[in-house]
Amino acid sequence: MEKLRFDVFGMTCSACSARVEKAVSALSGVKEASVSLMTNQMTVVFSSPLTADDIMRAVRDAGYKAEISDPSHNKKQPNATVVLFIRFLISLAALIPLMYVSMGHAMWGWPLPEKFAENALAVAGCELALSLFVMIVNGKFFVNGAKSLFHRAPNMDTLVAMGSSVSFFYSVALMIAAGVKGTDAHLLHGLYFESAAMIPALITLGKALESYSKGKTTSAIKGLMALAPSVVCVLKDGKEETVPLDELKTGDLFITRPGENFAADGVIVSGDCSVNEAAITGESMPVEKTAGSEVISGTVNLNGFVTAKATKVGEDSALGSIVKLVQEASASKAPIAKTADKVSGIFVPAVLIVALITFVVWIAVSKNTAASLTHAISVLVISCPCALGLATPVAIMVGNGKSAKSGILFKTAAALEETGKSDIVVFDKTGTLTKGSPVVTDVVPFNGFTGNDVLKTAAALEKGSEHPLAAAVLRKAEESGLTYLPAENFIGLSGHGVKGTVDDRYAVVGNLSLMRDEGADTSDAEDIGKKFALEGKTPVYLAVDKKIAGVIAVTDEIKEDAAKAVEKLKRQGLAVAMLTGDNAYSAEAVAKKCGIDTVFSEVLPEEKDAVVNSLKKYGRVIMVGDGINDAPALTGADTGIAIGAGTDIAIDSADVVLMRSSVNDVPRATVLSRRTMTNIRENLFWAFIYNCVCIPVAAGAFSPLGITLNPMIGAAAMSLSSLSVVLNALRLNLVNPDKIRASKKKTALPPADEIFAKNIKGNYKGEINMSKKINIEGMMCAHCAARVKNALSRIDGVKEVDVSVEENRATVTLSSAVSDDVLKSAVETEGYVVTSIE
Predict the structure, then answer these.
(1) What pLDDT sits at residue 305?
(2) Are 389 and 722 in contact (CB under 8 A)?
(3) pLDDT for the residue 66
(4) Can you state the angle between helices 369-382 and 665-698, rounded to 10 degrees?
(5) CA 622 – CA 601 distance, rounded (Å)
(6) What is the DSSP string of 440-477?
(7) What is the rounded CA–CA span in Å between residue 782 and residue 220?
């Protein structure tokens, strides 16, 4: 599959974008096509043998033009807003005398030269010339309208062109008739030249204001793009040379002086400085950089002269990736836009039919051609497909820009919509609610080992692991000045620990379940481990040659804003849960401090997806994690949020990327999503109501009540309707994402054990009451039953044991999941045979 972005030229309204999207989507090989009227761009996902040329040909056949997007293209284009304002001002220069002659003189008797005023045909000819001049100045409406009609895809330009042309040619017909008959006494009162000129002029003014407002909606993207310098100082053969940014290549050495922005991602080769990374990562404090430190494109060198080697340039850099992501998200379609798109696709043909029916009905009822034309023209010019088409994309554009400024990146418009609809937020613990930098707090040795022995052996094993707890053990060993060689025969056991050979001895480090699976006697260490867990620490057990050598306590500090963020989410009516592979005691301790009620503990990485899927039965689910270890859960959730991504924004598993590590950005994301969706609903409501009310008024449905509509007023209303939608969307820039609106709707979750008893049926490793029946051969008496009971009772997670000699069966009640192999091993160690476990 290939994904390309195209610039589309010639679109003026939502009917145009719907036409282009329909034409491209119909091509064989196109998986997805999304056209944005806001940016005049189209994003297409397609497969071979379809090519970009085929796509551009389909757009051309639809009556428009498309080119593959060029980042430098916008710099070469004249300012559309300025062009539209100039067109309007030129039109105004002719409109003022036209209105003076047509309205001022004809209706209110404003003075004109006597001989000129006495000749009605001369006055009409003046009006004709002035109106024709205005129509020529705004000829784009007529050219585009004719083209779209020729391609059987009428759009807004068609409505404007028809309304103006009908007014003009009807007036010309009256002039010709008056000249032929020689009766021009009442000629001036029946002319519509002023309407023919005013309609395109007012639409041009509306488009100019709309274009200016649209420019404001893209201010966030423009602000990001402005962070990249236009030129960069490159070192070539030891000499400084200033070149355009486009010429900087990967591997080039470039210089950044105090006050300048870094031109690319890179590594400092020489020099040191303080860097302001707030615009990219949201980090408010300056970050010190020295030789070997990485720098990010778009960040500011506050002081110091540094030379850096470019590692990523252009669109591949962090800044380029962010700009590209925001642009693609702004150009994508939200599900809520589907209804408006469907209406826009048939809107203009429907309006043409309504205008025709209006004329036929009025001519049949009133026999008055002028009145009938007035109503028909009013219907044409007041109908506004643009307001419908802009309602969603303009709000998406502003909402995305506002979010990007806050370090919150929604990958698609659908993600922006879904985030605010969610009912449940599930947090991973390590690195999400906690800082992700655990430290060793205690080391308790057993069986003749010293604390250093325990640390040294554990570090030798953990050297091959990438787990955060392993990093804590390694740091502690380094701080203690211990030296060791990495373990041999290293084996990583996902979710449990690691094992290998250290100094020719078999060693295992991990959780209590792993110790038991390995056959180590944990009776002496369990109380210490439980004590650490109750304190919110994670106990890490070390066994050497199947004997417990020690217990290491590791703790991960909770983020300062975690509890506040959870409280904000609850105020928004969301249920909050925590998901972790840690033991139940440690998990509960962290959850209590954060104010989280629902806790899923001892969940293996591969089981997190099952947890998320089970919660979907209670509402839409947001999963918040680091985007790496939580990839399946993030993908499985309705909305996946990767937190603390920094510059790594291309996390495939996440729908939303939080560049900072602040948990508080999660409620901020939901606030921005909800406010954006509210704004879209307001826009859609206005667009639909405007057309539903104004079209019947224009058609003369309320004429018996004395309510009618002049075509010029209709043209002004049409322009203002689009403008009002854009201005309403711009209000999103004023949203404070830290201001929470308390929700009356509150989502509640049942206890974790109940959820999994209903949905997972025993695959869950956390607190859960579950029973298993063990069928045993070899038990002969009460003494046998006692031995089996004692063996099973010693297993961590076994809550109750009931042994029946008569039924040759032991029934165990579990408080946490215990594998069948562990139960079987415990019984068979006592000399009995397990035939099956149910």
Answers:
(1) 92
(2) no
(3) 92
(4) 170
(5) 18
(6) EEEEEE-TT--HHHHHHHHHHHHTT---HHHHHHHHHH
(7) 78
> How would you label 205-223 residue by residue, b for 16+ Cβ within 10 Å and e otherwise?
bbbbbbbbbbebbbbbbee
In contact, 216 and 198? CB cutoff 8 Å: no
- Cα separation, 116 vs 100, in Å, equals 14
- Give the pLDDT of residue 814: 74
Find the Cα–Cα–Cα–Cα dihedral 72, 77, 80, 86, rounded to 10°.
150
pLDDT at 16: 84
Contacts of 571 (CB under 8 A, 6+ apart): 740, 742, 743
Look up the pTM and report it.
0.69
Amino acid at 705: L
Torsional class of 133: left (φ above 0), alpha (ψ -120 to 50), beta (otherwise): alpha
Is 541 in contact with 516 (CB distance < 8 Å)? no
521 a catalytic residue = no
Angstrom distance (rounded) from CA 561 to CA 450: 39
Cβ 677 vs Cβ 399: under 8 Å: no
Which residues of the chain fall below pLDDT 70?
71-78, 105-109, 182-190, 214, 217-221, 281-284, 330-332, 341, 344-345, 384, 495, 605-606, 627-629, 645-652, 756-770, 783, 815-817
The C-alpha atoms of residue 704 and residue 674 are separated, in whole angstroms, by 44
* Cβ neighbours around 176 below 10 Å, total: 10
Contacts for 153 with CB less than 8 Å, ≥ 6 apart: 15, 16, 19, 62, 63
Cβ atoms 672, 737 nearer than 8 A? yes
Phi, psi of 259, rounded to the nearest 5 degrees: 90, -10
- The pLDDT score that the predictor gives to residue 118 is 74
Would strands 439-445 and 488-493 be described as parallel, antiparallel, or unpaired? unpaired
> 384, 160 in Cβ contact below 8 A?
no
- Strands in 505-510's sheet, in edge-to-edge order, are 439-445, 547-555, 538-544, 505-510, 497-502, 488-493
169 close to 85: Cβ distance less than 8 angstroms? no
> Model confidence over 342-392: pLDDT tens digits?
776 688 888 889 989 999 999 998 888 888 888 888 888 787 677 777 788
Helix (H) or strand (E) holding 319: helix 318-331
Task: Copy the structure tokens of residue 99.
Answer: 């209105």
CA distance 56 to 65: 7
Give the pLDDT confidence score for residue 75 in this predicted structure: 47
Burial of 811 (0-12, 13-18, 19+ CB in 10 A): middle
- Amino acid 571: pLDDT: 93
Cβ neighbours of residue 715 under 8 Å, at least 6 residues apart? 160, 163, 198, 199, 202, 203, 381, 382
Q: CA end-to-end span of the chain, whole Å?
A: 48
Question: Which residues are CB-neighbours of 788 under 8 A, at least 6 positions away?
Answer: 776, 779, 801, 803, 810, 827, 830, 832
Q: Are the beta carbons of 288 and 246 closer than 8 angstroms?
A: no
Q: Do the bridges between strand 424-428 and strand 621-625 make them parallel or antiparallel, or are there none, so unpaired?
A: parallel
CB of 301 within 8 A of CB of 275?
yes
**Given 341, 428, 655, 796, which residue is catalytic?**
428
Give CA angle at 501 (500, 502), nearest 5°. 120
3-state SS class at 95:
helix
Q: How far apart are CA 443 and CA 773, in angstroms?
A: 38
Separation between Cα atoms, residue 18 and residue 339, nearest integer Å: 12
| CA nearest to 721, candidates 397, 389, 395 | 389
Cα→Cα distances 501→487, 497, 540, 835, Å: 5, 14, 18, 34
Q: From the DSSP assignment, how many helices (H) and strands (E) are in the chain? A: 30, 30
Secondary structure in 3-state letters for 729-795: HHHHHHCCCCCCCCCCCCCCCCCHHHHHHHHCCCCCCCCCCEEEEEEEECCCCHHHHHHHHHHHHCC
